[in-house]
């Protein structure tokens, strides 16, 4: 998958998570998911992220190659450990980024698993897993991501409309000050 498709795909995964957990969809989480969606390609110096931080991507590319450990579930586990540690040692607000970054990262792995090249999910086992839906850079890749993203937005609007119509039928109850900012 290309970066231009990884970004909306990752954002859509975050929006689905927010819809499923009643968490508000905010710009910070959405952007963190988009960044997480680019992160696995840090192992490629010509990737969107790799071109911006070549001092990391070039050595990483030399050490592990593209679509290696960074495209595995092991990398996700490492992130789930390191991001909260970073939040604990640096700034607790970083903890708010753990879920969107990790979901974006997972979306990247899922997106690349849809291409013929696949991903080594169980690295260090180098076997690649693929569902082979489309080729990278193909029109089908862009169509798939576009339809997926639009579907999530529509689903979100439908879910919001159902919620609002349900709430409108409920008797009015007092709202605590803690929740007032969301209404």
Quick take:
The protein is mainly α and 183 residues long. It has helices at residues 3-21, 27-38, 54-64, 73-89, 98-113, 139-169, 177-180. Helix 1 crosses helix 2 (27-38), helix 2 packs across helix 5 (98-113) and helix 4 (73-89) runs antiparallel to helix 5.
Describe the overall structure:
It contains seven helices and no strands. It has 183 residues and is mainly α. It has one domain. The C terminus is likely disordered.
- Total domain modules: 1
Q: What percentage of residues falls in helices of 4 or more residues?
A: 55-70%
**How many strand units?**
0
- Helix count from the secondary structure assignment: 7
**What radius of gyration results from the CA coordinates?**
19 Å
Distance between the termini: 38 Å
**Weakly predicted, low-confidence segments:** 172-183
Mean of pLDDT: 85
User: SSE order in H/E notation?
Assistant: HHHHHHH
Overall body shape: globular
Q: What percent of residues are in strands?
A: under 5%
Main β-sheet, in a few words? none
Q: Which structural class should the secondary elements be placed in?
A: mainly alpha
Name a few traits of the molecule.
183 residues; disordered C terminus; mainly alpha
Which SSEs are present, and which pair or pack?
Layout (H helix, E strand, L loop, with lengths): L2 H19 L5 H12 L15 H11 L8 H17 L8 H16 L25 H31 L7 H4 L3
Helix pairs in contact: 1-2, 1-5, 1-6, 2-5, 4-5
